[in-house]
Amino acid sequence: MLQIALLGFGVVGNGTAEVILQNQKQIAAYCGDEVNIKYILDLRDFPEHPLGNRVVHDIKIILDDPEVTLVAEMMGGSHPAYDFTCAALKAGKHVVTSNKEVVATFGAELLDLARENHVSYLFEASVGGGIPIIRPMQTDLASNEILAVSGILNGTTNFILTKMKNEGAAFADVLKLAQQKGYAEANPAADVEGLDAARKIVILAALAFGKLLDPNKISTTGITGITQEHTALADKLGGAVKLIGHTEKVDGRVLALVSPFLVFSSNPISHVDDVYNGILVDTNMLGRAFFYGAGAGKLPTASAVVADILDILSGRSTDRRLPHWTVADEADIADVASLSCRRVYVFEGCPRCEAKAKTALKTEDSVWLCDGKFAVISSKMSATNADAAVTATGLCPVLSLPVLE
Ligand code: NDP
Ligand code: HSE
Predict the structure, then answer these.
(1) Could you say which ligand is closest to the alpha carbon of residue 154?
(2) pLDDT of res. 349
(3) Catalytic residue among 38, 100, 163, 200
(4) How far is ligand 2, taken at its centre, from the CA of residue 275, in Å?
(5) Atom 26, ligand 1: residue with shortest CA distance
(6) Which end of the chain has fewer CB within 10 Å, C or N?
(7) pLDDT given for residue 319 in this prediction
(8) Do residues 128 and 311 lie in contact, with contact meaning Cβ atoms separated by under 8 Å?
(9) Quick check: CB of 99 below 6 Å from ligand 1?
(10) How far is the CA of 153 from the centre of ligand 2 (A)?
(11) Of the residues 44, 57, 75, 78, which should be mutated to test ligand 1's pocket, given the most ligand atoms within 8 Å of the CB?
């Protein structure tokens, strides 16, 4: 019998127990032995749950039990999640986690600690919910140089944007629904202000480029400034507004940001709706790969947690496979204003203003909307150059968004 412990018995912890109990037979066949949840650490008791008798409130019980070889951390927050993770790794226990806050903040250190103790530290569920993205990037794309990663990385905000666009629903009502469905973070400001997506793009940037950026310091704009008028304008332009995390290398430095982008319907990302996430990985051999699936929620996320558990317990994961990350310093980080892409600007004005804006933004691409508004889609240029060109026209955009290529 393979003995494990769950830390945190909320949405993801409950889902993890459900996956293990419901798919017991196929899990045992894959691991060569049965997997048993020996302990569940939580602040509360769960007397009604079939595993209610496994609940403990002291991490020491788990750390001191030599039968427990693996701990799944699903408590959320930095502390004590980070401290329990360190203690488990030092006690020679493998750790898997869905906690992107801990991975994005302490991942470099925790991977080193795992290696020192000859155990694994896996975090498939920390990005993209149930979508396999971390393992494919590390294994299936190992022969490729990764050039860029872009995508919808937050289920809650995609759910909100989709309902605003398709149903004209109010922001606050949809956020409440996302919370009820178990998609949102304990503090949903992390979702709507973009920090959750920032943590995820920082993890993907570290996988792609080996440098762990500080998620609190990358350029992050959430969706609180996006209105129904913006989503309707994007629709008229043949696209959708999506909250995108993007990373690429610019002159050897890592650029990472989170921002609402306009995504034209020719890009599969524009069709990723509701709680789904979609991630584009651009590589030098395969070209572009697209990863799609449920980005949050109980069972999808638990599916990814259990995938990591099985990887370890079946002996397929070893500490030799763990990535090496170093903490990025200033010299490793590219200025976000250097991101070169097309940008859409919406102005109010007359045909002469339109002509002026098109010349400034080096483009022939413009569309008349309604109420005297027109949109100009710039040629590919940096934010610095595009904004300077617009300022020089004296026109004041009512909306400006980068375009996801
Ligand atoms: P929940 O709040 O539903 O669950 C967390 C559980 O951990 C709660 O039962 C909480 O107890 C318990 N807990 C908190 N602090 C402690 C502590 N010090 N000791 C013991 N137990 C503790 O969160 P989720 O399950 O939604 O999320 C868990 C993690 O997974 C987070 O890092 C989240 O970002 C991540 N994640 C979540 C996804 C989702 O769709 N929900 C998807 C992907 C990742 P109490 O409620 O009493 O505070
Ligand atoms: N709050 C997160 C989201 C959970 O909505 O994407 C999944 O990481």
Answers:
(1) 2
(2) 94
(3) 200
(4) 9
(5) 11
(6) N
(7) 81
(8) no
(9) yes
(10) 8
(11) 75
Q: Ligand nearest 196 Cα, by number? A: 2
pLDDT digits (tens, 9 = 90+) for 376-396: 999 999 999 999 999 999 999
DSSP letter (8 states) at residue 118: T
Sign of the alpha-carbon torsion through 281, 286, 290, 296: negative
Cα 257 from Cα 48, distance rounded (Å): 44
Q: Quote the CA–CA distance of 136 and 311 in Å, as a whole number.
A: 13
Cα separations in angstroms, 16 against 60, 120, 307, 321: 22, 19, 10, 24
Tokens coding 287: 């070209």
Q: Is the CB of 295 under 6 A from ligand 2?
A: yes
To the nearest whole percent, how much of the chain has pLDDT over 70?
A: 100
Please give the number of the atom of ligand 2 that sits closest to the Cα of 200: 8
Q: Phi first, then psi: give them for residue 140, nearest 5 degrees.
A: -65, -25
For residue 39, give both structure tokens: 């302990």
Residue 145, by phi and psi: left (phi above 0), alpha (psi -120 to 50) or beta?
beta
CB of 297 within 6 A of ligand 1: the answer is yes
Note the pLDDT tens digit of each residue in 87-119: 999 999 999 999 999 999 999 999 999 999 999
- Nearest-CA residue for ligand 1 atom 42 is 296
Alpha carbons 86 and 271: distance in angstroms, whole number: 40
Q: Are the C-beta atoms of 63 and 29 separated by less than 8 Å?
A: no
Report d(CA 295, CA 274) in Å as an integer: 9
Per residue in 182-209, pLDDT tens? 999 999 999 999 999 999 999 999 999 9
Q: Is 165 a catalytic residue?
A: no
Distances (CA, A) of 217 to 127, 150, 213: 19, 18, 8
Place of tokens 């696209």: 239
